[in-house]
Amino acid sequence: MGESSIVVETAERIFADLCDPQTVNSAKDDTWKEALWKALTENGLTLPWVSEEHGGSGASLADGFELLSAAGRFAVPVPLAETMLAGWLLSQGGIVSPEGAMSVAPVQPKDKITLNADGTLSGRAQNIPFAREAQHFAVLAHGAKGVTIALVAAKDCRREDDENLAGEPADNLVFDKTTPLKTGSAPKDFDQTALMLMGCVARSLQIAGSLQYMLTRSVNYSQERVAFEKKISKFQAVQHNLAKLAGETAAAVAAAGSAAETVATGTPWNDETTFLEAAAAKIRCAEAAGTGSAIAHQVHGAIGFTKEYVLHRFSLRTLGWRDDFGNESYWAVELGNRVARRGADDLWPLVASR
Amino acid sequence: MSSLTFDPIRLPETCQALRREARAFLSEEIARGTFDPNNPRRGDSADGREFAKRVAAKGWIGMTWPKKYGGRERSFLERYVLTEEFRVANAPTGVYFTADRQSGPTIIRYGSEKIKADVLPRIVKGEIQFCIGMSEPGSGSDLFAAKTKATKTEGGYLINGTKIWTSNAHKSDYMIGLFRTSAPTKENRRHGLTSFLVPMKTKGITCNQITQMSGQREFNEVVFQDAFIPEDHVLGEIDGAWKQATTELAYERSGPERFLETYYVLTELVRAMGNNPDVRSAEGIGRLVAQLHTLRRMSVSVAGMLEAGKEPVVEASIVKDMGTLWEQALPGNARTLAAFIEQEPGNQMPLKKHLAYATKVAPKLTIQGGTTEVLRGIIARGLGLR
Fold first, then answer.
1. Chain A neighbours among B 318-377 (CB < 8 Å)?
2. B287 and chain A: CB distance < 8 Å anywhere?
3. Residue A279 near chain B (CB below 8 Å)
4. Given A166, A187, A208, which residue is the final one in a domain?
5. Model confidence over B312-360: pLDDT tens digits?
6. Which 8-state DSSP code applies to residue B240?
7. CB within 8 Å of chain A, chain B residues 238-277
8. Domain-embedded: residue A94
9. Using the beta-carbon criterion (under 8 Å), do A348 and B267 form an inter-chain contact?
């Protein structure tokens, strides 16, 4: 993923034009949202991972991942990642993606949706991002014949509104004998863990992108703000804090990029290295999100704490994304257990396998 | 600015084949009793000189160097794989590691043809050991405060002064040392230092070993009293050594040795936890492995960028800053996680012994080869802050 692809260039142009963070932050209403979504849809950016015959634009996994990094750098406040993931999940079940915004369920590893014998869905999926704004959900369900992918109309399930740290929808969905519009069997070896790992990669890329923005913003702010008769960037304590932020950003960029490359090159979902890459990326990016946001705020002082300043759009989303598709504690326990089962002498061969 | 690049470099299949070969070689060496892989005091137990010669026979010292000096012109990524495998195995690489990593490349770049032809093939054969003469009693991180003098004399220079904290000087055949040939100027305080190749057998050089708090005796005070160094032993520009240390630092700072120094603690922690750890231990191990994996991905990425001819100086400094802090904190983290492991009476676990040693070694990890503070300064400069 060296040179930017045309997909990413288009996306960055749209983000810069239609969801500049400062403009969105000062907007009095949501009219910008419609224009942004329209532009993303018209350019085929909402369904890059869906083939053309299934209603998408058929871009590569790598291009889609780059798109998510860019979305992180702009703290894009529409269900782009969610629609991308939903389209991708539907494709796993051979289901054509409908138009409009979508989200995916479940996003918590321990939530289980059941496919009943009569073809309906039952279960509870917590904190579904942007559920309120989605017309459809791509659902991974467990039935008698294994894993099934289902397309569900938003109006057909019960919703309890909730929100994430950034005030974006993170609603609970209740499937109570809900009849899906379509179902399809998942491919062999594709299960809920695979969905969670894919979600981990997506959120890791968004976190890394957002940290890149926060680093740039914090460096720039430190060169604008004067205190004690000099730019605060000239104080060694501030420089060292920013160097630490650069380090956390670098770790997030490297971990997320490495995991994305692993998935993009077609490593099987049940491969040990896929698990290591995606889980480690989520753990490390979540840690960087905490440490990094704290430094960005510290550098900004009081202004960074206001609603009118743009920093919270990034810091709060970055912190919120930690909780989707399994938080860092969940993945650390899973990874730790796997490492323990392999045994001490098989740890290094795992780490050095790629 | 602040576009940090970490290309997701993958090791090519040639590297993984080399890795298998390295593991087979190391197993044989362990089987013949050359070293104990469970002893992190690399070199204490082992005959490093003989080991170095057998590593050399594999073509693994100076393997990236030009063939005309005995090198194999192999890739930097291949060297990376060997470095990490040898480090994780606690192999006694002390004899050749410094020469292989930095002294040799410095000579290739700045040495005269005569010096190259004389010295490099002997490094490649594993016959000679190098040390680095930088710090002085009054000059550590502040390299350009060095006072040890090289005074011009007939056919060469006379060195007078003292270097300190010089690792393995007492065992070394050569030092690459930084000496003052002129006073600094008002405009450039870095001016006036020259790099020299110093044969350690030279009359007038005395090594006094300094015992470290870990019990190791690597450190030395090296005293120079009218030690004569021939003119052709100058490396690079007179008074201009400060110009010579940019890209090389990226190699020196980003290798796997910058986060694997206490790796043995993690291995023993996993062993002590067993196959079915409690939730607290599992989470702790999971986080440590995620952090280690990330550091390695960053480090491999820098190696790949160097191989591709880029100069990721800031990225390399970030790897060393974060890597050394991680390996330094590892003993403390392992101690916390191991707090509730049942200890059988009379059964001294290796973990306890390893923890004690790693805890005593830990403080130096963020000091040697550029302190945390110096590295953060370099990163800050890369961010455009200074």
1. 318, 321-322, 373, 375-377
2. yes
3. yes
4. A187
5. 889 999 999 999 999 999 999 999 999 988 766 555 578 999 999 999 9
6. B
7. 263, 266-268, 270-271, 273-277
8. no
9. yes
Write the burial class of residue B351 (CB in 10 Å: 0-12 exposed, 13-18 middle, 19+ buried): buried
The string of DSSP letters for B91-156 reads ---TTTHHIIIIIHHHHHHHS-HHHHHHHHHHHHTT---EEEE--BTTBSS-GGG---EEEEETTE
Q: From the list A216, A233, A253, which residue is nearest B385 (CB)? A: A233
Give the residue range(s) of CATH 1.20.140.10 domains in chain B.
Answer: 247-382
Could you tell me which residues come within 8 angstroms of residue A262 by beta carbon, excluding any fewer than 6 positions away?
A: A273, A274, A277, A278, A354
Q: Residue B281 and residue A243: Cβ atoms within 8 Å? A: no
Determine, for residues B286 and A343 on separate chains, whether the beta-carbon distance falls below 8 Å: no
CB contact (8 A) between residue B4 and residue A258: no
Half-sphere exposure of B319 (CA within 13 A, CB side): 33
Residue B385 with chain A: CB contacts under 8 Å: 219, 222-223, 233-234, 238-239, 242
Chain A stretch 224-263, residues whose beta carbon is closer than 8 A to a beta carbon of chain B: 233-234, 236, 238-240, 242-244, 246-247, 249-251, 253-255, 257-258, 260-261
Minimal Cα–Cα distance from A112 to chain B, Å?
A: 22
Instruction: Inspect the interface and report whether the beta carbons of A240 and B271 lie closer than 8 Å.
Output: no
Q: Do B85 and A352 lie within an 8 Å CB cutoff?
A: yes
B132-240: CATH superfamily: Butyryl-CoA Dehydrogenase, subunit A, domain 2 (2.40.110.10)
* Out of B8, B84, B291, closest to residue A284 by CB: B291
B5 min Cα distance to partner chain A (Å): 8
Cβ neighbours of residue A165 closer than 8 Å, sequence gap 6 or more: A316, A317, A319, A320
pLDDT tens digits in sequence order for chain A, 354 residues long: 445 688 899 999 999 999 999 999 999 998 999 999 999 999 999 999 999 999 999 999 999 999 999 999 999 999 999 999 999 999 999 999 999 999 999 999 999 999 999 999 999 999 999 999 999 999 999 999 999 999 999 999 999 999 999 999 999 999 999 999 999 999 999 999 999 999 999 999 999 999 999 999 999 999 999 999 999 999 999 999 999 999 999 999 999 999 999 999 999 999 999 999 999 999 999 999 999 999 999 999 999 999 999 999 999 999 999 999 999 999 999 999 999 999 999 999 999 998
Residue A232 and residue A215 in one domain: yes
Q: From CA A36, how far away is CA A31, in angstroms rounded?
A: 9
Q: Which of A261, A283, A251 is nearest to B9 (CA)?
A: A261
The helix (H) or strand (E) run that includes residue B234 is strand B234-235
Q: Which residue of B has its CA nearest to A221?
A: B385
Same domain, A260 and A175: no
Please give the ipTM for the structure prediction. 0.97
Q: From CA B218, how far away is CA A312, in angstroms rounded? A: 50
Domain B247-382 class, CATH top level? mainly alpha
Q: Does A339 reach chain B within 8 Å, measured CB to CB?
A: yes
Distance of CA A109 to the CA centre of its chain: 15
Let me know: does B333 contact B288? Beta carbons within 8 Å.
yes
Q: How many folded domains does chain A comprise?
A: 3
A114, A96 contact by CB (below 8 A): no
| Gap between the Cα atoms of A303 and B173, Å rounded | 59
Domain with A61, as residue range(s), is 1-76
A148 and A242 share one domain:
no
CA angle (B353, B356, B361) in 5-degree steps: 125
